[in-house]
Specification:
The chain has six helices and six strands; from the N terminus they run ββαββββααααα. It is of the alpha+beta class. A hairpin with a 5-residue loop joins β5 and β6.
Length: about 200
């Protein structure tokens, strides 16, 4: 399966989708997530998704151990089956969704979801944040081809703060508490603040 071109062919997200519980594995839009599928129930869930929209919701636990009410809807990009009957699938994150109901619990959960609305920020706020974030990441670089130099250049070229927050959160943030906040927060401006504060304080080496 090819990675979906979301700009050229926007996806209409289903209102209900199978829920894959990942424990403390966090998934964000715009990012790939490899997952090992080893149980019969999980296998049935993947088969169901493949027969329908090829979409799975990835859910994780809250700090209290309950299900976090925000999930990331991901498209199944590939499935590799192993000789022992297990498989590994790669999900490409598409959109953060809020759980609003439950259609079924067994043999696997199917949840009703709705998109988390995008809250815009002013161009001035974004430009200032984007420049400061790019400088912060560039300061970590040891050369022009260093990872932080490359990601700094990517940040400076991006025009969508939500995408920047998702990708940097997925790849750079280690704190489970912060990841939960970043996944759940609806305000784009607050998510921008979370990302900058976290990357400024965390040891990313």
């Amino acid at each position: 399966m090819e990675e979906p071109d979301l700009e050229a062919d926007p996806l209409v997200m289903p209102g209900a989708m199978p829920l894959l519980l990942s424990g403390d594995i966090f998934h964000f839009p715009g990012c790939e997530l490899p997952l090992r599928v080893s149980s019969e129930i999980q296998g049935s869930m993947v088969e169901y998704a493949m027969e329908h929209d090829e979409i799975l919701a990835v859910g994780c636990a809250s700090e209290a151990g309950t299900l976090l009410p925000v999930v990331t809807a991901g498209m199944i990009k590939s499935v590799f089956e192993f000789a022992d009957g297990s498989s590994e699938l790669v999900l490409f994150g598409i959109q953060r969704m809020r759980i609003v109901g439950l259609n079924q619990l067994k043999p696997f959960p199917i949840v009703r979801v709705e998109p988390i609305p995008y809250s815009p920020v002013s161009p001035g706020e974004f430009d200032e944040w984007n420049e400061s974030l790019g400088d912060l990441l560039e300061a970590r670089a040891t050369g022009w081809d260093d990872f932080f130099a490359q990601i700094s250049d990517w940040v400076r070229r991006m025009e969508d703060p939500a995408t920047i927050c998702d990708v940097l959160g997925h790849h750079l943030v280690r704190s489970r508490k912060i990841l939960r906040e970043l996944l759940s927060e609806e305000s784009t401006k607050k998510r921008m603040e979370i990302v900058f504060k976290t990357l400024a304080e965390e040891d990313l080496e």
